[in-house]
Design goal:
The structure is a homodimer. By secondary structure, chain A is mainly α. Chain A contains 9 helices and no strands. In chain A, helix 1 crosses helix 4. The longest helix of chain A is centred in the N-terminal third of the chain and has 27 residues. The interface between A and B is large, with 44 and 44 residues. Chain A binds a DNA duplex through helix 3.
Chain lengths: ~180, ~180
DNA sequence: GTTAAAATATACTGAATTGTATATATCGAA
DNA sequence: TTCGATATATACAATTCAGTATATTTTAAC
């Protein structure tokens, strides 16, 4: 099935932003990569910022959903699923297109206090934390809120350090730490 | 004591990069803020990239040193110092000029594989991890290497989430998790 | 098949940005 | 005092980039 022009643009933009950063990539480069005229790009997205936002939303949905599906394919048990999160994280780190968290990178480039980019980024992190908390509740763990926030710390730290040190093994260490935290909760 | 021109430039650049990001800030803005001619700027730094590198090195030394001094002022005991790290981290989050990790943000904007920016960033993280590992060894903990890496995960995660969610309290959660990990090691 | 929307091709505007050029002034040290 | 390095003031060159303009063609629904 063929992608719509809009989706082709989103995908090309996603690839380029991921490779080079947001301000480093011009709209000309995006439209060229997509094989779509700049005029058409501006027909779908009224500004570069709007395009960036759309890319983040597009990526958020797809990535988080596929992530959760992968986790759920690993086990039926909620507690095991909590640990499986770190296995999937490691797979993500090992994928060729891993380049850190696209949301955090966007916020780093556009740190404006009330910016929409910040909101989208916050929203994505909140949704993921809720997912972990849901698993913790199903696992019958009492302080699910605190625990899920702590696991988030490990995951975010692993993302950063995997990017900086170029070492996907961070995920393994995070998993070990998570195991201890879960046992103690 | 008066700062050298070079240092004035570094400081102005640091403030602006921290507020707006790297590519969003032009050399004109930096020289203007420092009250120093652009020609003079280019006398001290041969390119913008060189300036960014110098800013990162300048910041790295000052920030990491002042951080460690603050930690050491909190306690004499190595194990207590390991926990004090998270208190100082929280103070950092609460400071008005906190805007995430400047190294990670730089790497996000200039993700080039072999770039000097990446090297400086890696170096800084490694030095900090060694500091934690040193404390863990002095505290007589056996698996100091693994533990220090796990504490790094918590710290980096806290930095990211404090920035994203605008909530310095992340540090408190990280400290609790750190406490559990230290106890279990 | 007609028609309106969507897409192309291509050129252009205006602003911003990195880095340089030139001519002049300040200032510390030999 | 003089000389060389550092700094200023200001203008300029060369690109790059976001976004627009115009005229033409394709597509898809009615």
């Amino acid at each position: 099935m063929k992608l719509s022009k809009r989706e082709q643009l989103l995908q090309s933009a996603l690839e380029l932003f991921s490779l080079f950063g947001y301000s480093a990539v011009g709209v000309d480069a995006i439209s060229e990569r997509a094989g779509i005229t700049k005029k058409t790009l501006y027909h779908h997205f009224h500004s570069k910022e709007e395009l960036i936002l759309a890319v983040l939303r597009y990526y958020d949905e797809r990535h988080r959903n596929s992530f959760m599906r992968s986790v759920e394919a690993k086990s039926e048990n909620p507690k095991e699923r909590m640990l499986a999160i770190f296995d999937i994280t490691e797979e993500w780190f090992n994928s060729s297109n891993f380049s850190g968290c696209l949301f955090v990178r966007a916020m780093g480039e556009y740190p404006d206090e009330g910016s929409s980019i910040r909101r989208v980024c916050q929203e994505s992190k909140i949704l993921f934390q809720r997912y972990i908390q849901g698993l913790a509740e199903k696992a019958g763990l009492k302080n699910s809120s605190e625990l899920s926030k702590q696991l988030m710390l490990l995951i975010e730290g692993a993302i950063t350090l995997a990017q900086v040190k170029n070492s996907p093994l961070c995920a393994k260490n995070a998993k070990k730490a998570a195991h201890v935290l879960i046992q103690n909760s």
